[in-house]
Amino acid sequence: MQRQTHEYPIRVYYEDTDMGGIVYHANYLRYIERARSDWVRQLGNDQNAMREAGIVWVVRKIEAEFLSTAKFEDQLMVETEMLSVSGARLTMGQVVRRDDTEVFRATVTAVCMNSAGKPVRLPAEIRALL
């Protein structure tokens, strides 16, 4: 499998911070979600078409580490890399950096589900994109 890293820039806004002036922990999940959405869009995966066909991506598992802090006006970069893909799941590594400093790291496992909420195999056209 060829390793490719997708990069997605984030600027920290005041609304992203807590009373201490640092990024509120739950916002890192929002940042990495935006980066994953941008990544699959750039790959050519039309999530609206998938939904219309009765299939959606669902996050099954996230393992996260908070390594440092980010603050108002920081410019961050979210790096997303596919770690593995199987018949029914996709595992990605995601790192949020401020310059050379890792701020947050996560391993995210996503699966495809049908409209009845049951896991389904990744469609062949999606596996081909990955």
Mean pLDDT: 91
Q: Can you summarize the main beta sheet?
A: 6 strands, antiparallel
Low-confidence regions? none
**Class by SSE composition:** alpha+beta
The run of helices and strands is EHHEEEEEH
Portion of residues in beta strands equals 35-45%
Radius of gyration, Cα only, in angstroms?
16 Å
Fraction of helical residues = 10-25%
Task: Quickly count the helices.
Answer: 3
Which geometry do the CA atoms define?
elongated
Number of strands: 6
Care to give the gist of this entry?
By secondary structure, the chain is of the alpha+beta class. The chain has helices at 25-43, 47-52, 124-129; strands spanning 5-11, 55-66, 75-85, 89-98, 101-114, 119-120.
Structure keywords:
single chain; 130 residues; alpha+beta; six-stranded antiparallel β-sheet; 24% helix; elongated
Describe this structure in words.
- By secondary structure, the chain is an alpha+beta fold.
- The chain contains three helices and six strands; from the N terminus they run βααβββββα.
- Strands 1, 2, 3, 4, 5 and 6 form a six-stranded antiparallel β-sheet that branches.
- β4 and β5 (101-114) form a beta hairpin.
- The model has no long low-confidence stretch (mean pLDDT 91).
